[in-house]
Amino acid sequence: MRLLALLAAALLLTVFQAQAQVYGPYDGYDGYGGYGYDDPYGAYPPPPVYEPMPRYREPPRERRAPSTRRTAGTIVIATREHTLVYTTSWGEQYVYPIAVGRDGKQWYGSTRVVSKREHPEWRPTASMRQKNPRLPAVVGPGPKNPLGTRAIYLADGLLRIHGTNDPSSIGTNASSGCFRMYRQDVEELYEMVQPGTRVIVER
């Protein structure tokens, strides 16, 4: 009789353990990488949609008092300072950090804005493709586009002020001659400047 009671208790304990749900460790859940969220039988629900933290911190945009040495309605690029200053027609100045051309790829002088384009395509030049045959003929809009979301074309259209898909390059000599800006900066500048705007590139 005692043996029968022990067998019944062991069988009952086995049933309860089979019904119990065992959860894995909590470590890693907050990192959005420790669990497979496409598993419908996982212990935790999918995390909410979130924006990843950027790898860089954008400095606040400056505003300067009007300066008599800068002409209203003009963009002035100070290459050594990695700075672009746009003076509006009413005299307010917007100062932006930029990336400039690498040594040997810098251009200085006076030109004008000839056109603007939202979500531009990037077409590597023949010399770029000769150096790197893996480059495609055209890169469409999107996160892989080196021009970012806006492009302001200067001179013959090959020199540009544009966004970038590498914001960590801002403040350095990194481009093939063009001027890179943070996304929100170039989008702000894009709305203010018009074709015909004078652009002065200083050393």
Q: Which key phrases capture this entry?
A:
alpha/beta, 17% helix, 24% strand, two-stranded parallel ribbon
* pLDDT averaged residue by residue: 76
**Stretches with pLDDT under 50, minimum 5 residues:** 15-57
Query: End-to-end span in angstroms?
Result: 100 Å
Give the helices and strands as they follow along the chain.
HEEEEEEHEEEEHE
Rounded to the nearest angstrom, the radius of gyration is 29 Å
User: Which structural class is indicated by helix and strand composition?
Assistant: alpha/beta
Describe the sheet with the most strands: 9 strands, mixed
Q: Helix count, per DSSP?
A: 3
Morphology:
globular
Secondary-structure map:
Elements: H1 2-19, E1 62-64, E2 74-78, E3 83-87, E4 93-97, E5 100-101, E6 109-118, H2 126-131, E7 150-154, E8 159-162, E9 173-175, E10 179-180, H3 183-192, E11 198-202
Parallel strand pairs: 2-11, 5-9, 8-10
Antiparallel strand pairs: 1-4, 2-3, 3-4, 6-7, 6-11, 7-8
Q: How would you portray this structure in words?
A:
It is built from 3 helices and 11 strands; from the N terminus they run αββββββαββββαβ. The chain has a 9-stranded mixed sheet with strand order 1-4-3-2-11-6-7-8-10, covered by helices on one side. The chain has a two-stranded parallel ribbon with strand order 5-9. The longest helix is centred in the first third of the chain and has 18 residues, at 2-19. A hairpin with a 4-residue loop joins strand 2 (74-78) and strand 3. The N and C termini lie far apart (100 Å). 17% of the residues lie in helices and 24% in strands. It has helices at 2-19, 126-131, 183-192, and strands spanning 62-64, 74-78, 83-87, 93-97, 100-101, 109-118, 150-154, 159-162, 173-175, 179-180, 198-202. It is α/β, with parallel strands linked by helices and 203 residues long. The radius of gyration is 29 Å and the shape is globular. The model is unreliable at 15-57 (pLDDT under 50).
